[in-house]
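Handout, page 2. Input:
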Amino acid sequence: MATRMIPTDTEFLAEARFEEPSSFTFAVDFANKRIKGYTDEKDAMRQAVILIFFTQRYRWEIFSREYGAETKDLYGAPISFVTRVFERRMKDALLADGRITGASNFRFTKPSRNTLTVTFDVTTIFGDVNDVEVNIDENLS
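Output:
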């Protein structure tokens, strides 16, 4: 009796395991620009949103073309333009991550002459991450 080396499609699918995407990762201390331990689930997703925001899409070859946000041209632009396009661009950037299912409730404040703060909520497979805050300012590059 000959032994088959290649499984049939049904045999392969019966043995395949499909797992949810993980959120376990290094924790970034943004204030001190260091890695500080590990984080998971909602806290990791808040960090992922911030990292997506601060990574310029198409700029770094190490990232896929879907990773990051298009925000560089927002600095110095009229607030009416920024508030009009930011929500669409961030939703596009965030939904490229399969763990993120939505973004909503965008709120804009202008704490200083050179800074626009955007606060919004993100829905993930790990639960809602509320009040994510990012600044559109001269540090965006």
